[in-house]
Amino acid sequence: MRSELCRYSMLASMGLGLLTAGACKPRENATTSGAVETPSATDTTGRMTSDTSQMAGGKLSDANIVGLLDEANMADSAASALAVTKATSPDVKAFAKLMMNEHHALRVQGQQLAKRLNITPAPPADDPLKPAAEGEMSALKSTPKGAQFDRTYIEQEITIHKAVLDVAGKGHDATQNEDLKKLIEQAKPVIEKHLSKAEEIQKKLGKATA
Question: DSSP code of 4?
Fold first, then answer.
């Protein structure tokens, strides 16, 4: 009888252990709704999306914020430098030159502040802007020069400026550093101006075809 009780006790312990292990196993890339997040910020056509929700689960550090802003300015400067050589619409070419100049200026301001605050830029591990920037550059390189390129570039710029505004807003809420808050507050109307200008141009050109 005693051996029977011991056997049942062992089986119960094993069953409990299996249940515990199953309950504690982490769910990879799961959201609170049970849906699986996609790590990429590009859609199935290779065009960029503005999904920055991947950052919502963790608090951004000042190094993360500075890193994201620097990355955004660098990426837009590079994309616009390419657009200057391939754009055919005078409006698009002028817009690309404006993006090069003003995003370079914004980047310099961010770098100067980072140096003064002794912050080393470090984008978060779930950085949504890197794949977005790579998606934009890929789309621009693969689109031939002409009207379709102009439409593609403007469409990409609308999407990325929306994404950057979202990231900047999250950064402003996350940081306690008043100088960094001020930098974001100064950059926001510039980014909003870029977005508005791109949307005006899109109305003239029409949207890019898939």
Answer: H
